[in-house]
């Protein structure tokens, strides 16, 4: 089981690898694969990390190639760690990861362990330490995955590392999730990862395996079956070793190749069986070979089993039941043998090649089978009754010995329910341990099995509640089923309310709105007086429905009336009261009521939401309100939320925070950082299988990509947002429709774009939406009409959006509306609108929108013959667009400058203003004395990214080292401070904004 010592993990250091490959004679026709793997190892030594997957059927030689890598990456140059997935340990949380890293942490003593787990790597400590009785049940899967990444960084700093995983198709979900997280971050590491897998072996984790082998970083190798020539050589060699001088006839050789399909393992075991049965290699025996070949391994194992003594057979079966890397003393206990007898049996089983030979023969030394196929043959040679009895005895022995609960639970998964309380206790502890180690998928498996052992209502309640909660974000329908069973069993008030809240949320996500409301309302009605927190939480659930899902008009009006009533009441001091504040703020924001902003700020001001409600809908609503209002508190709070999620949060909480931070960064024009956040969120969604974020995250990413000119990728983002071609019935659909409209417009399809924009507006209005800061559908439709030369139809739409934006008051929405109004009006009036857009946006944090407004104003001034003023405005717009990395806008501005007879100057390439926001953040930390590693950990990027940012900063600032940074960098600029309303009087080319905007 994982957690026990794995053989052959060799940490080492020493002189450089020579690159010389020593090929073993057992490998036939594998030169191409060995060459590819050799290059991978050599590149890793020079700091270019690589990943390879060897895919093929059982016995094709995958394990032999992994063994060959250990010859290539020989000590003392490399640190090599190995692991193997197994059916028995498939649900063991981070089992494969533990096999890889535990021996490395154990070698070198406590000092080395402390060094490897220092800094951010310490977040992975729970994986390698016993879980205490009061272990947390909070989901920390992402924090642990991030800690494992930094543990890998720490190892690679000491020497090049090679990680080898056989049978990765049997790896647990959490370990596969770690590999998907590691892959995009390999380029900076002295690391080579090679995994071996059988195709289509594990349907449950197929999406993760597909991600691993289709990732651009993965070199996929598919060894082919041996040719007749190679097969003949192998068969002749095996007979020559056993019966020297015995001629092998061609027809016999052909039969061997035909019967095994050229599979090396089947060939070897076929020959071994033929030799054991004294079959001579003559043409006359070819038919016997044909019969024997397809079941060669099972027949070979069967022959050996029948010749074993009772003691040897008992030990062989015990090892087959216990799985990989079994301590001999455990196998002896299960077999019922004295340790001395077990040692003798082990030696014999190794001589006949059933068990592999290890480095030692002590009682704690791990033993295992020579090949998983051999182990499976021994296991399945047992009767079902024998297997069940062995697994039950193994579970009892491990539990009595104080082993980790997951080790015993792995055996209980193979047994039918017995309705025994102590078995339920083992499974519940295993689920708790799995959650504490960041493996909710494993926790679900243990809990589902635990249902069979739960015999009392209270036991069933606890198991069902934990199942429903854990499944909430990965399998909504299953979560609903379990919570529906749990709800009537909950008699305690707070417990009943908590389950009702979860169940209603699951029903809402499944678009079963009336059922969700019934659950929440019934729970609310059952609350006794004096429960303000629970009352507020359930009210927040009920009142949030119209913000996310369409509801019948009568039902919607009822909810809105309750929103109005709650708005008049004072805020509650409890967490539930803050939830209610956030939901009411969301309702205010969608209709454009500026009272939403102080309400959201009030809910967030003491930090309790961030501490206790990360990843929840109310906190996300508060962020959304502040983003729509261009408030700096949004980014400040989101930075804290991301930091917290990296350090101690779940994939869900990180995904939510990254999604909204991407939107906030888009608003201020930090496109590079916004795209990085959105792509990290996409990876988290795909790794965890969380689909609920797609309908927001996909459109936000598409928006960012369109600003950067990546239209094909924007289309992919919109396609990714929908898991099927059928549009979902959801109130959030309007986000997707609007981005689709924008993409069609940029693809020069204005008629189709207009239809999509109007559809987005119809969906938004049906949901009660009016605020253009949430969905600027009127301006998008106006732009489409403008491209169709239908400005008279566009103008009312643009002016209506301008009126709504003025009521909301946020600079970005107001400036955008003014810009669009300026585009669809001709002459001086259009120019006046554009001047007001620039005026409104100049001191705002919305730098990209300011650059757009300035670009359009410069173009209008050029057309009006005011070329000098146009050049000045366009030059400033070009600099800002360049800093935002909005390449299409830069090209548009340069075209305008050329049309005005001005040669565009190069984008800012030197000085403090040339630094991107990421470069400046890195430079400021470096100037403060932080090391590259500390900066990388603080900003959640790779050390190589820090190096690249510093190198670029040195070039732009004309310096050569970090000691010179402090002199070049002024105090950090507060670019996200609230924008002051302009008090400048209209100049010669400006008119009163109030009179203009009310036109």
Automatic annotation (TrEMBL):
PROSITE patterns referenced in this protein's UniProt entry, alphabetically: HTH_LUXR_1, HTH_LUXR_2
Region (Disordered): 1-23, 968-999
SMART domains: HTH_LUXR
Record flagged with keyword Ion transport: no
Entries under SUPFAM superfamilies matching the protein: C-terminal effector domain of the bipartite response regulators, P-loop containing nucleoside triphosphate hydrolases, TPR-like
Domain HTH luxR-type: 908-973
The protein's name in its UniProt record: AAA family ATPase
Annotated source species: Streptomyces bambusae
Classification lineage: Bacteria, Bacillati, Actinomycetota, Actinomycetes, Kitasatosporales
């Amino acid at each position: 089981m994982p957690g026990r010592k794995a053989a052959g993990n060799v940490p080492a250091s020493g002189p450089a690898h020579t690159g010389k490959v020593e090929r073993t004679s057992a490998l036939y026709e594998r030169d191409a694969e060995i060459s590819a793997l050799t290059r991978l190892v050599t590149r890793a030594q020079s700091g270019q990390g690589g990943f390879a997957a060897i895919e093929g059927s059982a016995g094709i030689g995958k394990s032999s190639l992994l063994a060959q890598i250990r010859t290539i990456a020989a000590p003392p140059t490399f640190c090599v760690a190995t692991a193997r997935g197994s059916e028995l340990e498939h649900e063991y949380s981070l089992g494969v990861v533990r096999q890889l890293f535990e021996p490395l942490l154990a070698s070198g003593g406590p000092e080395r362990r402390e060094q490897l787990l220092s800094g951010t790597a310490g977040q992975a400590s729970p994986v390698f330490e016993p879980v205490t009785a009061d272990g947390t049940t909070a989901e920390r899967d992402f924090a642990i995955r991030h800690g494992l990444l930094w543990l890998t960084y720490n190892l690679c700093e000491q020497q090049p590392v090679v990680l080898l995983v056989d049978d990765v198709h049997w790896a647990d979900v959490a370990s596969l999730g770690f590999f998907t997280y590691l892959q995009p971050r390999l380029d900076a590491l002295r690391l080579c990862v090679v995994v071996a897998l059988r195709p289509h072996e594990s349907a449950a984790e197929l999406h993760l395996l597909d991600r691993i082998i289709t990732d651009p970083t993965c070199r996929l190798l598919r060894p082919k079956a041996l040719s007749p020539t190679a097969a003949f050589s192998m068969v002749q060699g095996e007979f020559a070793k056993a019966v020297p001088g015995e001629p092998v006839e061609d027809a016999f050789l052909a039969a061997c190749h035909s019967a095994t399909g050229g599979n090396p393992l089947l060939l070897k075991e076929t020959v071994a069986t033929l030799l054991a049965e004294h079959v001579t290699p003559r043409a006359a025996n070819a038919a016997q070979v044909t019969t024997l070949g397809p079941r060669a391994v099972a027949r070979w194992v069967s022959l050996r089993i029948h010749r074993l003594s009772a003691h040897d057979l008992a030990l062989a079966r015990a090892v087959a039941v216990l799985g990989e890397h079994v301590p001999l003393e455990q196998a002896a206990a299960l077999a019922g043998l004295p340790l001395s007898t077990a040692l003798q049996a082990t030696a014999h089983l190794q001589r006949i090649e059933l068990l592999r030979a290890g480095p030692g023969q002590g009682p704690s030394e791990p033993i295992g089978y020579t090949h998983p196929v051999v182990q499976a043959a021994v296991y399945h040679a047992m009767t079902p009754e024998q297997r069940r009895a062995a697994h039950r005895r193994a579970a009892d022995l491990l539990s009595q010995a104080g082993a980790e609960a997951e080790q015993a639970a792995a055996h209980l998964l193979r047994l039918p329910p017995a309705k025994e309380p102590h078995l339920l206790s083992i499974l519940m502890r295993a689920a708790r341990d799995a959650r504490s180690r960041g493996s909710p998928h494993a926790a679900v498996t243990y809990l589902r099995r635990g249902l069979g052992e739960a015999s009392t209502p209270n036991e069933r309640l606890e198991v069902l509640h934990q199942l429903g909660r854990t499944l909430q974000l990965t399998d909504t329908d299953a979560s609903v089923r379990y919570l529906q069973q749990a709800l009537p069993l909950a008699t305690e008030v707070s417990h009943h309310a908590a389950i009702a809240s979860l169940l209603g949320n699951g029903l809402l996500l499944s678009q079963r709105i009336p059922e969700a409301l019934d659950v929440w309302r019934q729970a609310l009605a059952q609350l006794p007086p004096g429960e303000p927190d629970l009352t507020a939480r359930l009210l927040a659930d009920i009142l949030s429905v119209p913000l996310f899902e369409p509801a019948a008009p009568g039902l919607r009006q009822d909810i809105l009336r309750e929103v109005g009533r709650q708005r008049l009441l004072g805020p509650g001091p409890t967490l539930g009261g803050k939830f209610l504040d956030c939901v009411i703020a969301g309702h205010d924001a969608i209709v454009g009521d500026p009272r939403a902003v102080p309400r959201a700020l009030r809910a967030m001001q003491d930090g309790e939401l961030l501490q206790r409600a990360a990843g929840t809908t109310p906190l996300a609503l508060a962020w959304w309100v502040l983003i729509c209002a261009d408030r700096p508190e949004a980014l400040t709070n989101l930075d804290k939320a991301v930091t917290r999620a990296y350090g101690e949060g779940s994939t869900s909480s990180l995904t939510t925070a990254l999604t909204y931070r991407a939107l906030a960064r888009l608003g201020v024009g930090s496109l590079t950082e916004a795209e990085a956040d959105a792509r990290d969120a996409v990876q988290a969604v795909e790794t965890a299988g969380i689909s609920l974020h797609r309908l927001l995250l996909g459109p936000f990413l598409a928006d960012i990509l369109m600003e950067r000119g990546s239209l094909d990728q924007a289309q992919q983002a919109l396609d990714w947002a929908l898991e099927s071609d059928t549009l979902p019935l959801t109130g959030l659909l309007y986000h997707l429709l609007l981005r689709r409209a924008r993409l069609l417009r940029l693809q020069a399809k204005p008629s189709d774009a207009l239809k999509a924009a109007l559809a987005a507006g119809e969906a938004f209005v049906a949901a009660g939406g009016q605020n253009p800061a949430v969905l600027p559908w009127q301006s998008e439709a106006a732009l489409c009409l403008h491209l169709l030369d239908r400005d008279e139809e566009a103008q009312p739409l643009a002016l209506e959006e301008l009126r709504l934006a003025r009521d909301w008051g946020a600079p970005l929405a107001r400036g955008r509306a003014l810009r669009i109004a300026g585009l669809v009006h001709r002459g001086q009036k259009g120019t006046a609108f554009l001047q007001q857009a620039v005026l409104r946006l100049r001191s705002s944090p919305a730098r990209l929108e300011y650059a757009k407004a300035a670009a359009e104003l410069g173009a209008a001034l050029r057309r009006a013959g005011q070329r000098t003023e146009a050049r000045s405005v366009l030059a400033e717009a070009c600099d800002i667009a360049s800093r935002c990395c909005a390449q299409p806008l830069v090209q548009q501005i340069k075209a305008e400058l050329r049309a005005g007879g001005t040669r565009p100057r190069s984008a800012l390439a030197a000085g403090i203003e040339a630094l991107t926001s990421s470069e400046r953040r890195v430079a400021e930390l470096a100037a403060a004395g932080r090391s590259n590693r500390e900066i990388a950990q603080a900003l959640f990027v790779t050390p190589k990214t820090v190096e690249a940012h510093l190198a670029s900063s040195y070039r732009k600032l004309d310096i050569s080292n970090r000691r010179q940074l402090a002199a070049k960098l002024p105090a950090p600029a507060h670019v996200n401070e609230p924008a002051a309303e302009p008090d400048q009087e209209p100049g010669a080319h400006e008119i009163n904004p109030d009179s203009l905007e009310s036109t």
